[in-house]
Amino acid sequence: MRNYRFRVNPVYKKELKQSARTSRTAIILLVYNGLMLLFGLFAFYVTFEGDRQLSVSYTDILSVYSIMTGIELGLILLITPMLTAGTIAGEREKQTLDILLTTRLTPEKLISGKLQSALSTILMLVFSSLPVLALVFSVGGVTFRDLAQFIVLIFITSIYIGSMGMFFSVLCRRTTEATIWSYVALAIVLFGTTAVVGVTGILKCMNAEQGDGYYGVFSLYTYYNIGIGPVCLLLLINPLLTFAAMVKDQVGGAAMLMGCLEQESRLGNYIVENWLLFSLTLQTIIAAVLLGASARMLRPTGGGRKQRLRRLTSGMR
Amino acid sequence: MVKLDQVTKYYGSFQALNGLNLQIDKGELFGFVGPNGAGKTTSMKIMAGLLACDGGTLWIDGEQVTPGSGSWREKIGYMPDFFGVYDNLKVMEYMEFYASIYGRENDRRYLYELLDRVGLAERGEVYVDHLSRGMKQRLCLARTLIHDPLILILDEPASGMEPRARYELKEILRQLSIDGKTILVSSHILPDLSEMCTSIGIIEKGKMVVKGTVEEILSTFSEANPLLMTFTGGQEAGMRILKEDPRTRNIASRGSNVSVLFNGGEEEEADLLAKLIAGGARISAYRRAEGSLEALFLKLTDKGDENANA
Ligand SMILES: Nc1ncnc2c1ncn2[C@@H]1O[C@H](COP(=O)(O)OP(=O)(O)OP(=O)(O)O)[C@@H](O)[C@H]1O
Ligand SMILES: [Mg+2]
Question: Hey, of A1, A18, A102, which one would you mutate to test binding to chain B, going by the most B CBs within 10 A of its CB?
């Protein structure tokens, strides 16, 4: 009789056991919360000391909330590639991968076990920093629903960035190589997309007729309506914009940025108003594709990177 | 049980397997020999489902199979030539991890029995990365047994083991063979293989050169063995005659004992002896060396190399 009871992924279970015996997790936890606390105090200081008033204004609290969650997101973005890029490449380096691939364990199970263990570390970081975030709640102004939404955002973002790490971990031979490529991918997603949109704007400005009243590049920095166009959709894959959309929805922050996006993209306000939903959905789809590709490349056909890539592109059977 | 038919494998433009044929019947303990780079590891990886071949067909347990498909891998236990173990995991936990892939992690008695089989029963609580190399290899062997596979594919399981550990490994493999497992084992240590294997295949440059039982192979190729003779006098004259004879190679002497590779059958051997005696040599012993797989191996895998060391 087969046992249909829910079973914990064996790889995940093993990773838990191993990491419980190292100080790595503890160190990450310590550094992470230390930084959160440091930045948190700094945010409070800048916001409240800056104007030397005893009264605490409502918008100040909201800006502290935005800063704190923003920092949390930034830290998670930085940590995720590190947690995922070594997963498969590390097994390859330690020469344990071949054994795994000859067992009953499917590449999908292997990928999901590794991802689960990275995500559980991230969730642990997020939950461990809740007390620091609670500083904001102590003063009020933000609901628990907002916080839950933020945690969902962090969760999806780390799956998204983590799937890139996994992808390179399967593709590359060495952990270092995979780590570098993961950070390159992260930089492209964060800054590359922004740069493309920015450069499009600059080009539009320069091509604008003088009669339009624009003066070359400089008009970009004013909130004039350049009309960058649908290339702005590229920003849907940028977690920073996703976060900006959430902050705007929740506490009305980043309103100028989102307003600008609405105006420049010329897409009508439907997409921009639902930016959070659209970008999270798109990022989830990208993550699913990357994870599927990773599993496919792990199918036992062996060979080097070229063969793994060929395996990916040839005959999607 | 396992059959490879005209299997080819390319690494880029380099041909590692060149129409390899191999058949291993149920219950056989098959020894796989060949020089470095002959393609043993490559063909074993193909059989374990880790590599796809570029041509030819593969049968496992009577079924034609392709890598990455089906459940035929369940029938195989594979031990790679080089492998690592996980940090921060104890021996028993290492076994439990692989067992959990098959849903057997709670069957501690079973895992203990497997460890006992390879002599590691006492080491369950030791961290795997603290084990010696030979112990790691035995642990890996125990691991390949977890899902009770029909076929074991072991790539140089004895490499780096001291003689006693090798002897124990031989005993373990023999026992597994008696228990009904079909075993394919590669090695560079020929005496070990000739002692325990029911049959042997010699592979070179991606092709099977010869295969059969050890006795069959040795009797077919007995001419590969050197002639041994002991001089009691006239050794110098004898050596000259040996050197002048076109059918001899690799003449080596130690004191009055001389060994020489001689290309010829029994009649030619007798002729040579007559010639030596006529030339003034006094000989107290004269015979073909006992079949040695080593000599055969060197002869078969070193064609045309006159400096081969017999
Ligand atoms: N991943 C690879 N890429 C390119 N060439 C390879 C690769 N793996 C093996 N080869 C080549 O294929 C040939 C066969 O290698 P293989 O490892 O199968 O030999 P082997 O018989 O196991 O040798 P050894 O006795 O040293 O273990 C060698 O010439 C080797 O250089
Ligand atoms: Mg090898």
Answer: A102
